[in-house]
């Protein structure tokens, strides 16, 4: 590894210190007999200046080097309030590792072009900021989960059945059998709670969703928790504590990156327990009062959720959905058989659903009945039904879409920008 100083670590108090930098040419301009190069690395940028009198050779290299060329620069730090970070490097040596004559991404590049060359778009400091925030949010989640006694497990991705409906399964040939890409690790987490009680996993989940909305991917990162002995209210408390910790910790560690995308942090600061809770019935009434044509029993889509979020300035829960619009594994509400003990967490500012969760049906007979009601074959879920035969317990869990949470925190206009290489119905390459 090159013994280098990171760009963001070049400070005014290093005046006179000799440093070696390694990175990529981010910006370049010639002013009179000087060449200014803003060098970029993973930490940020620093201004370097090349003068003929300092080194003829380095000056000539600086004049010819192209944007996004990889370079190693040596020089002396000089405090200068006009330079980003208050200091610049007066360069006297440059090694061009690889010169780039023309970098295809220009200022006016369209979103579609950026996605076509996503492998080059990852040079962008803004993209790096998104990935740093996403990584920090997951690091915060891990911190919280470890501190609160949750065990990480590693469920399979190659599976034999649907969790969230057969219409969004990706099917593949598995030797002489049929397999699917996992839509959710939930069923396997439900098996794990009989030994570990409180489990979680971060896995890629796959949905053959044809819906081309700003919040759907065909592959997304899915943070899922499952706990024995917990009912719906218990798991909602877990959700709001976990999400609050993820958001507040990210503000603590990555505030500059977050502020690159949003100046108003109010809804993030408001993300502290307890989150507001409204029933599905109340949600329908609110929507109807705002002129939305929706009847009780209908599902809320992105548009309805967007309108609903206008009522809140923090994430909030909607609970008590009608049974027929929710998944087979959800426990019927003992007080109202039309409903299930399920709740979604919606993010404000128009983002909507970021978490889907519920208390699970723990009765063998009722679960068989729900599977049949949904037109599925209990034989396909024999192992899953066994979980209700051998020491069944009340249990609950949820799934958080990591890209959706990041998209809200950074106010991204599409969830695809929150993933390294977005997968959508029209995108499988690069
Ligand atoms: N362990 C569980 O209880 C999870 C449960 N089986 C489940 O998959 N619920 S979910 O379908 O609402 O998906 C959960 C979350 O997963 C995210 N999600 C769900 N589908 C997508 C797509 N297509 N793209 C991006 N993100 C998606 C979104 O935030 C949802 O709230
Ligand atoms: Mg959902």
Automatic annotation (TrEMBL):
GO annotations under biological process? asparaginyl-tRNA aminoacylation
Q: Does the keyword Aminoacyl-tRNA synthetase apply?
A: yes
Q: SUPFAM superfamilies, from UniProt?
A: Class II aaRS and biotin synthetases (SSF55681), Nucleic acid-binding proteins (SSF50249)
Highest rank taxon of the organism: Archaea
> Which is a Pfam family this sequence falls into?
tRNA-synt_2
Q: Which residues form the Aminoacyl-transfer RNA synthetases class-II family profile domain?
A: 137-422
PROSITE patterns, per database record: AA_TRNA_LIGASE_II
Q: Name one GO molecular function term.
A: nucleic acid binding
Keywords tagged on the record: Aminoacyl-tRNA synthetase, ATP-binding, Ligase, Nucleotide-binding, Protein biosynthesis
Q: What is its EC number?
A: 6.1.1.22
- Describe the family membership recorded for this protein in Swiss-Prot or TrEMBL: Belongs to the class-II aminoacyl-tRNA synthetase family.
Q: What is this protein called?
A: Asparagine--tRNA ligase
The scientific name of the source species is Thermococcus celer Vu 13 = JCM 8558
């Amino acid at each position: 590894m090159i013994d280098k100083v990171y760009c963001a670590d070049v400070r005014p108090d290093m005046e006179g210190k000799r440093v070696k930098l390694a990175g990529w040419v981010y910006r370049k301009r010639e002013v009179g007999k000087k060449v200014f190069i803003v060098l970029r690395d993973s930490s940020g940028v620093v201004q370097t200046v090349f003068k003929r009198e300092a080194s003829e050779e380095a000056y000539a290299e600086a004049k010819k080097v192209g944007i996004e060329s990889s370079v190693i620069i040596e020089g002396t730090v000089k405090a200068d309030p006009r330079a980003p970070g208050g200091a610049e490097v007066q360069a006297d040596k440059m090694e061009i590792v690889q010169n780039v004559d023309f970098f295809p991404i220009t200022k006016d590049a369209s979103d579609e072009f950026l996605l076509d060359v996503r492998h080059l778009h990852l040079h962008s400091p803004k993209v790096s900021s998104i990935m740093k925030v996403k990584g920090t949010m997951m690091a915060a989640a891990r911190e919280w989960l470890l501190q609160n006694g949750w065990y990480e497990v590693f469920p399979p991705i190659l599976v034999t059945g649907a969790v969230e409906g057969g219409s969004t399964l990706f099917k593949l040939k598995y030797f002489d059998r049929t397999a699917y890409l996992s839509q959710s690790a939930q069923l396997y987490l439900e098996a794990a709670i009989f030994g570990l009680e409180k489990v979680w996993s971060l896995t890629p989940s796959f949905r053959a969703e044809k819906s081309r909305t700003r919040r759907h991917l065909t592959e997304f990162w899915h943070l899922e928790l499952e706990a024995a002995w917990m009912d719906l209210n218990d798991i909602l408390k877990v959700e709001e504590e976990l999400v609050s910790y993820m958001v507040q910790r990210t503000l603590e560690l990555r505030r500059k990156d977050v502020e690159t995308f949003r100046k108003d942090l109010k809804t993030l600061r408001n993300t502290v327990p307890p989150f507001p809770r409204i029933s599905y019935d109340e949600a329908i009434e609110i929507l109807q009062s705002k002129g939305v044509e929706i009847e009780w029993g209908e599902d809320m889509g992105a548009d309805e959720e967007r309108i609903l979020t206008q009522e809140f300035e923090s994430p909030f829960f909607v609970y008590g959905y009608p049974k027929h619009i929710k998944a087979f594994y959800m426990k019927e509400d003992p007080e109202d058989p039309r409903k299930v003990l399920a709740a979604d967490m919606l993010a404000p500012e128009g983002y909507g659903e970021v978490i889907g969760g519920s208390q699970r049906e723990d009765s063998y007979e009722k679960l068989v009945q729900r599977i049949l009601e949904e037109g599925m074959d209990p034989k396909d879920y024999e192992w899953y039904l066994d979980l209700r035969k051998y020491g069944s317990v009340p249990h609950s869990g949820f799934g958080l879409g990591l890209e959706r949470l990041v998209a809200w925190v950074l106010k991204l206009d599409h969830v695809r920008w929150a993933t390294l290489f977005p997968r959508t119905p029209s995108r499988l390459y690069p």
